[in-house]
Amino acid sequence: MLILECPYCGVKAEETEFHAGGEAHIKRFGPGSSDADFEGYLFNRENPKGVHFERWRHANGCGKWFHVVRCTMTLEVFGSYSAQVSEPPQEIRDAITAKRPGWCWRDFA
Amino acid sequence: MRRYSAWAVAREATRYHEGWERAWRAPEPKKRYDVVIVGAGGHGLATAYYLGKNHGITNVAVIEKGWLGGGNTGRNTTIIRSNYLQDSSAAIYEKARSLYETMSQDLNYNVMFSPRGVIMLAQTEHEVRGYQRTAHANALQGVSTEFISPQRVKELVPIIDISGPRYPVLGGLWQARGGTARHDAVAWGYARACSDMGMDIIQKCEVTGIRQEGGRVTGVGTTKGAIDCGKLGIVVAGHSGHLAEMAGFRLPLESVALQALVSEPIKPCMDVVVMANTVHGYMSQSDKGEMVIGGGTDAFNNYTQRGSFHHIEETVRALIETFPMISRLKMLRQWGGIVDVTGDRSPILSKTPVEGVFINSGWGTGGFKAIPGSGFGFAELMAKGYSPLTAEFGLNRFAEGRFVDESVAAGVAH
Fold it and tell me: Please, which residues have CB within 8 angstroms of residue B342's CB and are 6 or more apart in sequence?
């Protein structure tokens, strides 16, 4: 069972308080994009063994969306942060590096 | 291979059972194979079996990171059915179901196929209409199913409460030739038959890389050294994304945990398989008397082979509503497997961007029932480059928007 912290209201709770929203930081490709880009945006996923950036919603609380970084091999949570960013903030990256040196995720590292 | 028979048992009985041989060999890998299959689960072994049996390709290795049948093949609830809505799904699942009927004879290995019948309960008006539609579709597809009344459900399953507090039973989709089989035996039977054809099954051998030259696969790196191959089949369920990353492409898949549990053994009380998709739980009774219960998937990506407890609670709560008499059963074991789920909840049996690499994945929460059909079709695809069974399940369907949309048709329990 996961314990997550909502970065907005600061509540720390187990996963039934939240709703999982899948992979995070997906770049949207809309009209005018190539078929391959559009397919990648809609369907293809990183699905990594290890560090995974994902979106969660505090469904039974403040109702807001936020980001979580988690390890899919151990279920360890590295931290949560605002949904209003398109890349993880430096302190989150540092927290991951402390536990998983050499991690990578698309263009982030 | 020494055949198993009543005569063989009698013969061994006279000599302290010392004459039985190993069911399959444990060879060291050769330098090169025509075909390498990654993953010695049901689907991988079935693919190897049909490559040999139908296409005469026997220079084959099946390599496995852990032990044979130790992944989802040994973690499912063993349900076999083919009552799907879409034509392409019904074709491959019905092929599989029909191959299960004769599997014990074909493999000379008792897989304990038990065509005891499968009921999918309709507990809302939507489900009634949905399953009536499925029954009509199945009639056109040549899959034998019928929509039955609540009274008939009660006759078939006396322990069920059809008046239900929340969701009364309004009918059911009944497939009399569906059922269960012994999941381990399916993997073991195929492994024995493959080994007999001269194929090498190499366990405790992890793939560490996929070698390519000019966009074409040339071999794999493993923990037991490099192995060259002409063609490569990736049949690794939850770890498909990991292997695809080694080969340099991405897949429309996410890996999540799916859980199941079994109760203490009790006297025979239910001789069919019951699936309740609205409340989400499914149950059958094993030959040992345990109630075998399937739960739901977690919503988040996970490779740990364990799931969240609240899904177990939800499943058990739903089943107690449907079967009040099981409320005091103790549960013996609970476990999880990692399933790879696609957007349209249908599998991927396909060529890939790397020439010579084929992938069989995305079976999600419903792979066991498809094992022989999947192996039959995927072997044809690998041998000939085309199979009518797998034609609709290519990777290109996502780019083309040509889905096999069973997520709507089959509900959650799939």
Answer: B252, B253, B348, B362, B364
| B139 vs B133: CA distance, rounded Å | 10
Nearest to B229 by CA among B216, B244, B245, B238: B216
- Reply yes or no on whether the pLDDT at B201 is more than 50: yes
Nearest residue on chain B to A44, alpha-carbon basis: B252
Q: Are A47 and B302 a contacting pair at CB < 8 A?
A: no
Both ends of chain B: CA-CA distance in Å? 37
User: What is the radius of gyration, based on Cα positions, of chain B?
Assistant: 21
pTM, whole model, 2 decimals?
0.95
B95 domain-assigned: no
DSSP code of B303? Answer: -
Q: In which region does residue B305 sit, left (phi positive, over 0), alpha (psi from -120 to 50) or beta (all else)?
A: left
B315 and B266 inside one domain: yes
Q: Is the pLDDT of residue A24 over 80?
A: yes
Query: Do the Cβ atoms of B253 and A47 come within 8 Å?
Result: yes
* DSSP string covering B5-67: -HHHHHHHHTTTT-----SS--PPP-SEEEEEEE--SHHHHHHHHHHHHHH----EEEE-SS-
Query: Which chain A residues have a beta carbon less than 8 Å from that of B310?
Result: 1, 15-16
- Residue B399: list chain A partners with CB under 8 A: 35-36, 39
Q: Any idea what the CATH number is for the domain that residue B118 is in?
A: 3.30.9.10
- The boundaries of the domain holding residue B117 are 111-177+255-341
pLDDT tens digits, one per residue of A54-107:
999 999 999 999 999 999 999 999 999 999 999 999 999 999 999 999 998 888
What pLDDT is attached to residue B408? Answer: 57
CATH number at residue B357: 3.50.50.60
Domains of chain A as residue ranges with CATH? 3-26+37-99 (3.30.2270.10)
The pLDDT of residue B410 is 47
Once rounded to an integer, what is the mean pLDDT over residues A8-28? 95
How confident is the model at residue B152, as a pLDDT? 98
Judging contacts by C-beta atoms under 8 Å, the chain A residues touching residue B308 are: 1-2, 15
Predicted local confidence at residue B185, as pLDDT: 97
Portion of chain A with pLDDT greater than 90, in percent: 93
Find where tokens 């009918």 sit: B171
Q: Domain count of chain B?
A: 2
Per the CB < 8 A criterion, the answer to whether B93 and B369 are in contact is yes
**Contact state of B304 with A20 under an 8 Å Cβ cutoff:** no
Which residue of A15, A41, A47 is the best one to mutate when testing the B interface, meaning the one whose CB has the most B CBs within 10 A? Answer: A47
pLDDT higher than threshold 90 for residue B411: no
Q: How far apart are the two ends of chain A, measured CA to CA in Å? A: 27
- Average pLDDT of B271-294? 93
Distance of alpha carbon B116 from alpha carbon B99, whole angstroms: 16
pLDDT at A29 over 70: yes
Residue B104 lies inside a defined structural domain of this protein: no
